[in-house]
């Protein structure tokens, strides 16, 4: 079975400079992969010419799109006015079943809005949730929602857990992913009313729910999947990015304070590189929009080639595992059961 | 005017081993400081004997308390059963006006419960909020609530802003502290309904409200004061601690991988020390319980002598500035105005 992935080639901070090379790399890694490069045809062709790949050219197609959704564009405008954007055309290919998954490094809000409009959500799901991988001391974990949904009700949080559990199970080969609910204390009595109610629902579900986790558990790798409302999820993610930037800033400061420290930095270069690579967020690129009738993966806007390749891999693996169909099946079973 | 601070000497992970030495140091730094060391009298005396301080002995008193609240004790039990705990007796001294402020490194939940029971909250405030200092790339900022209040209503969030603004103004000498509301996007349309409502209230207030901030703004130092519900505040704080631990772990890993990297670590020791000191969370020790009829400062449980000294300094500065009275006055003015 060939896995067909449509790439919003013009999306992201670097557009085709990154997406084309990453796509070519992906084709050489996955022999059963077929790609649609969606964007300005002549620019894509020029970029492809830089990467001679005679044996690969039968495994991709260029789909022209005359517009681009910019990174700061209002999602509503992108949705209503840019019907021929590379993002929209790439998503259309999933809708028409020409592609098994779509990937974009473009504007997150626009990707959410257009995916939801074009693909629609699974019956029983109102808005898709964003699941991302987070580095931990022992490897990585998964967390959703990272910002697509605010004011989520307990029932919605349980749906996040269901969808995330299926995705982690099939993309990571974990039989029953352990699930933690993000809270501000591990005791049953702590937390908001909404979280207590959600915990009750999770306890009676078929999911492998293990209990409350706290903010620091994300990076300890306590569980395979952390469930939270998009408000807290996004704040935790952004605060984490903020601390990491600050620590990087102070580390650089310490090593560039004077001539001696600069010399020490030179000596320590391999160690610092090793440190950086263990924290390389690019290794965890590729967030999944779960709950759609189709697979859509969001790459970080500033992804480089290697990191965009990681996100293409995520789309490829999800398409292979038919994540969207599996989630749809499970949610519809639960709806029937509750009717 | 002498500033009298009561110290829960037995509180925290290290108890009198840390609190007494820090107290003695504080007395030599602040000439107008008087201390109450509250805890087991004979243990305190033995510890004090290790720090001969003939000239200082007129500036402190030992107040015996027969019990200690343990770090994992239920706040309800601590409140109901341990009426002669060092924590409770230290707070009682603020109630009886024998002390101008109290400081404890003990169990946060118990400190909240006992402070609230003994001192009561300011009229119009239901529960105190916890304000802490956070390191930034440019210095430090303040954030509240860090976990005392969940499901806070917009009105309560505005009270946090009022209390925090007064505290920052008078302890940091900033005429009109800039205030940001923690949200998941900077645009007006983003965020939960509660946050949008709160923003409307803050815009019409007399506070120096500048708008929404995101999680990464905490560490950029975008504003002087960040306001949020205790649920998000605690998650942001814990997630940040988690990232910092993980980065520290990977940095150590990189430097201890083999003999060569260990040698490099040796050479880089002064730089790594410099880096650690710039991030030293002990410099920001001392969270304020705002909204009480009295000043209560919470030290981190694992604080060392220097870091506990920072927290004593916070209590001293707040007592000097009569933070609690100033907050009470402002809140009562606003209550009258709204009646």
UniProtKB/TrEMBL annotation, chains A, B:
EC identifiers of the protein: 2.3.1.274
Catalytic activity: a fatty acyl-[ACP] + phosphate = an acyl phosphate + holo-[ACP]
Keyword set, alphabetical order: Acyltransferase, Cytoplasm, Lipid biosynthesis, Lipid metabolism, Phospholipid biosynthesis, Phospholipid metabolism, Transferase
One Pfam family in the UniProt entry: FA_synthesis
Cellular localisation: Cytoplasm
InterPro entries: FA_synthesis, Phospholipid_synth_PlsX-like
Root EC class: transferase
GO BP terms, alphabetized: fatty acid biosynthetic process; phospholipid biosynthetic process
GO molecular function list: phosphate:acyl-[acyl carrier protein] acyltransferase activity
Pathway(s) where this gene product acts: Lipid metabolism; phospholipid metabolism
Subunit structure: Homodimer. Probably interacts with PlsY.
Function: Catalyzes the reversible formation of acyl-phosphate (acyl-PO(4)) from acyl-[acyl-carrier-protein] (acyl-ACP). This enzyme utilizes acyl-ACP as fatty acyl donor, but not acyl-CoA.
Family of the protein in this entry: Belongs to the PlsX family.
Name of this chain's protein: Phosphate acyltransferase
Taxonomic lineage: Bacteria, Pseudomonadati, Pseudomonadota, Gammaproteobacteria, Candidatus Pseudothioglobaceae
């Amino acid at each position: 079975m060939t896995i067909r992935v449509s790439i919003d080639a013009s999306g992201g901070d670097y557009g085709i400079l990154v997406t084309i090379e990453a796509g070519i790399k992906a084709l050489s890694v996955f022999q059963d992969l077929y790609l649609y490069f969606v964007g300005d045809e002549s620019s894509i062709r020029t970029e492809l010419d830089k990467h001679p790949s005679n044996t690969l050219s039968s495994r991709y197609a260029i789909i022209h799109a005359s517009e681009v959704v910019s990174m700061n564009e209002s999602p509503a405008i992108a949705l209503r006015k840019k019907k021929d954007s590379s993002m929209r055309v790439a998503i259309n290919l999933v809708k028409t079943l020409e592609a098994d998954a779509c990937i974009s490094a473009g504007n997150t809000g626009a990707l959410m809005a257009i995916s939801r409009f074009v693909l629609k959500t699974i019956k029983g799901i109102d808005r898709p949730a964003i699941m991302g991988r987070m580095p931990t001391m022992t490897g990585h974990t998964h967390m959703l929602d990272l910002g697509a949904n605010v004011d989520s009700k307990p029932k919605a949080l349980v749906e996040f857990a269901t969808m995330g559990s299926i995705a982690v199970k099939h993309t990571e080969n974990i039989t029953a992913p352990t699930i933690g609910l993000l809270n501000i204390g591990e005791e049953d009595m702590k937390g908001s009313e909404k979280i207590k109610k959600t915990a009750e629902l999770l306890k009676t579900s078929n999911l492998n729910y293990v209990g409350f986790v706290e903010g620091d558990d994300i990076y300890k790798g306590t569980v395979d999947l952390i469930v939270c409302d998009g408000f807290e999820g996004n704040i935790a993610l952004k605060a984490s990015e903020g601390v990491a930037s600050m620590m990087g800033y102070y580390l650089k400061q310490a090593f560039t304070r004077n001539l001696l420290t600069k010399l020490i930095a030179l000596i320590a270069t391999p160690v610092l590189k090793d440190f950086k690579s263990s924290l390389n967020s690019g290794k965890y690129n590729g967030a999944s929009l779960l709950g759609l009738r189709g697979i859509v993966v969001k790459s970080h806007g500033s992804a480089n080639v290697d990191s965009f390749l990681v996100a293409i891999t995520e789309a490829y693996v999800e398409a292979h595992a038919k994540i969207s169909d599996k989630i749809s099946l499970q949610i519809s079973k639960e709806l029937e059961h509750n009717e």
